[in-house]
Amino acid sequence: MKLIQLLPLLTVLLLVTPASAQTPAPAPADTAPAIGQVLLTPAQTAHILKELEKVEAQIGQGRGSIFAAALTKFREALASDTAALALYLDCYKLEHFERKNLKQSDFMDWRDRNEARLKDDDFKKALLLQLEFLVLTIQAQDIKDSQKMGPLVTSLQTFLGKAITAVQGATKHTASGAVEAKDSGPKGGGARKGGGGGGGGLGGDITGTLRQPVSGSEFASAYLLDDHLARKEWEYRPLDVGGIYSKVILPYYLAEKPTELPAQWDMRINAEVAMRKAIMSETEFNLYYKDEGPRMLWEKNNYLVANNVNAVTALAEMLKIIQGNPNHPDAAAWLKDFREIVKQVSEPEATAPVEKPIGTQ
Question: In which domain, by residue range, is 234 found?
């Protein structure tokens, strides 16, 4: 909190505090005053808390107005790739030229040098997807009730489908199975924080753009959103399938629709596999899936057992994974963990009563 916000509160505190409390006896040498020595009356405490509520409301209003202004512009820019590109250029100009007091001619030179990139269809598609995910990110910031996350979760799943389809469309495989990424011209421009650009600079690299956190995008930086996007139960990288599911989608279904968790886990695995298959060569993907396929299935069923969702079926699937993958790098760890799980979920064996000899008490 800024000092200027604290001054009215401190003034009030001094006014309502008795003189004896304002001038405490000096503490003994080498002994710091303990906070427990400060005693406020119930009236003083109530007054301070009331003032804090006012400050909190002002902070919330300021944050809300920042989000509202950004959402208005971002939603307008989602109308078309041309609109998204225009907003990107405005944001880039503001962040990299106007705020640094550089000349208009400097910006024009930069734009001319990157003309081919700025006209690239994949680059503009990446901007649209980045903006869409940023809008979802802003909307998620103040949602506290899990029930209200439903529409946002649906939108997230729709977004992931579009993003993966875009990655698939931007990547080609040769007849031999090698990856042949689209060449959108020479690299250049140096977009800061990866915002709007590709993996190595300004370009039409959809995968590179969507792997970057939207909190560091050119759009977020221009509208000073960086420090306000602070929700912990959220994934800020649009292509992090695992993060989006583990932080947002699966917790929602666990809280609201637990019976649908197995299907949601299958959707997570399918999305991850589809994206990896698009960006990897055939050989790379086969090596990846050999180890990661069983690992994802194990993670799914371990999650279901831990949360008591179709636990018996999930345990049976875990046993099948161990049996079917004895040479897997994780096989020994799986076996150890599975034994422990079985011990924890097994009912204690019934003990037969000890019969006493006839005639004994």
Answer: 56-174+190-279
